[in-house]
Specification:
The chain has 257 residues and is of the alpha/beta class. The chain has 9 helices and 10 strands. 40% of the residues lie in helices and 18% in strands. The strands form 2 sheets. It has a 7-stranded mixed beta sheet, with helices on both faces. The chain has a 3-stranded mixed beta sheet with strand order 5-10-7.
Length: 257
């Protein structure tokens, strides 16, 4: 998969014990019509076969010591050689023309710096599929009004030279949307509904109540700027980063005050 010495795309995947889902992503990348890419798996000290699977698919493998999801993405970006970084997740699946469509978008717009699109959980319950759809409809409407981007690292493509001018992703919940918001204040970062990424529904297994609590924080963080630094949002961010940015090691809720 890493045939070119200077690939156009560097696909960065943070992992922790992803032996069940990672092969699906890597197979979907192997089938891409656009071959101008490399895959970087930034593993966070997995105890299963994640690392060997990555090597079996000829991906570049770096091993970190439980530094967390977003720091792992930053580590992958530092060794990337492509001109465009494509951040995604180990549970994602992409259509065979996915990279070709991204390439066309960037080639047709020289000012484009970042691109993101919707995700859809292929094995989630109906209520979760509806919520995912509604979320991307709302966030796209917000962009049309405010030009404020809210990307997810399930799929976020950004020019490498611009990304390296930043401090990278913060080790915080919703660091992906914060990064894209900041970039969109200075550069052209756009959503597209024509690039759909399929993901697993594992994040919905916490149940309707807990998942909606997570979405409520995202809604507040995205649509209500004056509440982004409230104590409640800070507590929820701390809890969420323990789940999503600390290699799945879990976290305890902070006591309410």
């Amino acid at each position: 998969m890493n045939r070119d010495s200077d690939p156009r795309f560097s696909i960065i995947v943070p992992t922790y014990n992803e032996e069940k889902l990672l092969p699906k992503l890597l197979l979907s990348l192997k089938d891409q019509t656009c071959k101008d890419y490399e895959v970087i798996v930034a593993d966070d000290g997995s105890s299963d076969r994640t690392g060997s699977i990555a090597l079996d698919f000829n991906a570049k493998l770096i091993v970190n010591d439980r530094i967390g999801e977003y720091p792992s993405r930053n580590a992958g970006a530092r060794i990337a050689t492509g001109s465009i970084l494509v951040f995604t997740g180990a549970d994602a699946i992409m259509a065979s023309d996915f990279l070709a469509k991204i390439k066309k978008k960037f080639c047709n717009d020289a000012r484009l710096v970042g691109l993101y699109g919707p995700t859809f959980p292929y094995d989630a319950p109906l209520w979760a599929k509806l919520e995912f759809t509604m979320w991307y409809a709302l966030s796209t409407m917000l962009y049309l009004v405010t030009r404020e981007a809210n990307a997810s690292t399930a799929f976020f493509a950004v020019k490498r030279d611009i990304f390296l001018r930043t401090d990278g992703f913060a080790d915080l919940a919703h660091a992906d949307s914060s990064m894209s918001r900041d970039l969109s204040k200075r550069f052209r970062v756009r959503p597209t509904l024509r690039l759909l990424v399929f993901v697993s529904g594992r994040r919905t297994k916490s149940g309707l109540s807990d998942f909606n609590r997570h979405h409520l924080v995202m809604l507040v963080d995205t649509f209500f700027r004056f509440l982004r630094n409230s104590n409640w949002v800070r507590r929820e961010r701390s809890y969420r980063v323990g789940i999503h940015s600390r290699s799945g090691s879990g976290a305890k809720r902070s006591p309410r005050k």
